[in-house]
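It is worth pausing here to work through a concrete case rather than discussing structure prediction in the abstract. The textbook approach is simple: state the sequence, then state the predicted structure, then interpret. We follow exactly that order.
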Amino acid sequence: MSTAKSISIISCGWFGRALGAHLSQKGWQVKGAKRELEAAQELAEQGIEGYQLSLEPKLICSNIDELLDSDYCVVNLPPRLRAGDSDYLEKLDNLLAAMANKSYQRVVYISSTGVYSDSLEVATEADASAHSESARVMLEAEQCFQQAHNAVVIRFAGLIGAGRQPGRFLAGRKDMAKPLAPVNLVHLRDCVAACEHILTLEQVQPAYNLAAPDHPTRRAFYQAAAESMGLEAPQFIDDQQAGKRVESSAIVQSGYRFQVTDLMACLSDPNSWK
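Step two, the predicted structure:
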């Protein structure tokens, strides 16, 4: 009888696929979901057992019980509110209904540091608020999974890493505001490693921030990022607007050590983008 840990990842996008591949290499039995059948089948290349899953307008999956039958579960379904994804919470309700009779050793829900207002100077896990519609939706989603499965929430900062080079984010843009505001980013390597850490940690708190401990200014970082790729550097206005710095001391206190700590040095490391 196999003693390998098993995990269901809903769903296997940029982060979920990387997490699944990493855990598969470490001997976990990994099941992952994608919306399109062909994309689900391609997960096998990373050692992930793929399932086609759609959550709208109702849940459609060839074998939802088999997909969700694991020791652990990671839910990574970011809302796309700007793209008109107004039924995000309804989609999550469909998933939660399918998970209702499942018992997991741990459920992790991936959220966002967008739940913190830019008016804050320093943002800790206790500072989340429904300061915008997207923040309200994310907080309600967090609460749904915490209430149903005692889920641990990980709030990702801006994502960088393989295929997401920050030099492209603002290249060539003019009259950008907040040149002195701190940058809040996290590398894919830390997203994967921190999630694995939280999955198997004995004692956890309800939510953790995940942002690199290094916070260069927007102007310094994004100009250097664009120049490192040979792109036109963004130009900033000379305002003094502040911005929040996302504090990740809670996950560090739990024993986690960031793999990418110097964001400026990361720009010139080709291995950071593979």
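Step three, interpretation. Residues 6-161+185-213+245-259 form a domain with the Rossmann fold fold (CATH 3.40.50.720). The CA atoms of residues 181 and 242 lie 5 Å apart.
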